[in-house]
Every structure is written in structure tokens, then in C-alpha cells.
Fold:
Amino acid sequence: MTDTTDAMGADAAALADRIHAAGLKVTAVRLAVLHALESAPHAGADALFTAVRGDVTGTSVQAVYGVLTSFTAAGLVRRIEPAGSPARYELRTGDNHHHVVCTGCGAVGDVDCVVGEAPCLTPSNTGGFSAQSAEVTFWGLCASCQRAERA
Amino acid sequence: MTDTTDAMGADAAALADRIHAAGLKVTAVRLAVLHALESAPHAGADALFTAVRGDVTGTSVQAVYGVLTSFTAAGLVRRIEPAGSPARYELRTGDNHHHVVCTGCGAVGDVDCVVGEAPCLTPSNTGGFSAQSAEVTFWGLCASCQRAERA
DNA sequence: CCGTTGTCTTGACCGATTCAAAACAACTAA
DNA sequence: TTAGTTGTTTTGAATCGGTCAAGACAACGG
Structure:
């Protein structure tokens, strides 16, 4: 039992199980990244590194990138890359939900596309392409940027 | 009249007009970029530079970036950034069409989203965000990658 | 044809991410 | 419980796509 697991309290075991169930070794950095992603969804690599740095001493950005790469490959996290901003990572995988990106500050929110997924996300003419998945990104303003806009 | 305009034949005047109409000065690099984009839609900056290099001697990648930036600002071209690949540029602006990206080779195709734009591209819960535009990206395989897949 | 204004050239620089080798730690099996 | 194997992290450098800045230069209106 290390300081790292202590810092996360009772969740640590559950996090470790999820990592282990994905066929990955349980390490301090991985626990810290998973923990950070739970409290900060849609975080980028640098934000995660900052968070991880608080839990694990002597770690590096490359370690975080490595963790994120293995997590993504294992299906534990999903990577999104909004145009014009560094990659973000989230724990909601499996359900294919979509995202809203704030054009002001770059904040990202989740969007469940409820209505008529079938009709509109089936392209009309794909010009020989076989479309296998669709990804929707909405662009707008987040709550606080809307407030700032009015001022 | 330079070699550049000669190489493009009768189109040169039309291209020059479009650049001029956008409020930009007509230069050799700009003509070459516009010409290259007509024969290679969804081209990236390096592909455009390679094409431009054939028309204009002694030019640079930065010049192409500069042209693309001013073109984008002027509304002459639209910039798209598929996840995991460098930015692409296209001349179809105004109509908000969408794209298919080949997961095999990165090729990009246009897609007109015909059906039910209103219902499905209006998100259900935006969590305080004000969605102003929607962007759809389809992922699949292009014709030649489908063929390669079967082999 | 001249002057102004905007564009291009040249070269350095930056952020985000990846690569590589060696040190190291987690898990497995004895 | 411990040793070995295998996978991870550390450390450091390098790559890729793109931007920034200053001076040289060219387009276009007058």
C-alpha cells in the first residue's frame, strides 16, 4: 500500500480493478490518471499531468502519454481531438455520444444525440466510401463565455 | 503575364477574379494554390506546397500557409482538421456539407447530409452550452482501401 | 510611373506528441 | 517468499505540423 492509493481513499481498489480487468498492470501513475479523469472529464494531457504530479512524485509527461495510449488501446478511455485544440480524454466509452466545444475557451461538454440517429447520420452519397461510424461535434459557447459575451 | 498564369491557361483570369473579389492581391503563389485546390480538393498544406512548387519557383511552405490563412479568413477556402491528420483545405464553402475520412489512408470525401438536418443535429442536452453549428465526420474505408482489405 | 500597403522570403521558434534505451516495478509461478 | 519475466516508467532527444517576426519585395490605386 503506497501513499498514492491512500490519497484516493476507498476508490483505489475499484480503480485498480478496472485497470486490471483491462489486462493492464496496476501502477501508481495509472491509478492517478484514472482518478484524475474521474474528477476532470475531457481533460487534456497537460492537465492530467498536473493532476498526476500531485499524487505521484518524480513522474513525467511522457508517462502520462504512455498511460493514455495504453488506456485508449484497452478501451478504458476515449480520445477526442477537437479542431484547434490538443487531444482530450474521457472515461465514457462504448456509448457513442457526441460533444459540444466552446469556441471561446475550448471547454468540452457531452451531448447525447437522442433524436433520429438513423436518418441523419446515414450519409446520402459517400462517393465510394463505406461509412462505419459517425462523429458529431457541436460548436458554440459555454455558459460562462455566454455571460462574458453579454458584458 | 508570367509563366505561372500561362501554365494555367484560360482559367487564370477567372482565378484572379475570385482572389480579387475577396479583397486580396493577386499573386503567383495565390493563383497556384487556388489552381492546385481545384484539381486536388481536400489537399493538405504539404501537398499544396508540392503542387505550387511546380508552378512557382523559389517559394516556401510558409508562403503556402500564409495564402491558406488569408484565403480561409476571406472565406475562399474552408479548413477541416480530421483527428489524427494534418489540416485539409477545400474550396466548397458556404454550403455546410460534411466529410468521410478513410481510416486506412486518410483520404477525405464530401458528404451532403440530406435527411433531417433539423431533428438530429439539434442536440438534446447541451449542459449550458449554446450550440451554433454542427460538424459531422464519418469514418470508414475509401474504395481502394476496401479493395485492399478484401485481399 | 510612383508610393503605399500588403505579401513573400528567410530563418527561428513553439506546442503537442512520439521515439528509444536503459532502469525499474508489477505480477506469475515455483 | 522470492526470483524471473514481462511490461512500464524514466530520461532525453527528436519529430511533425504549424506559427511568429523582420526585412525584402511586389501588386495595385492614384
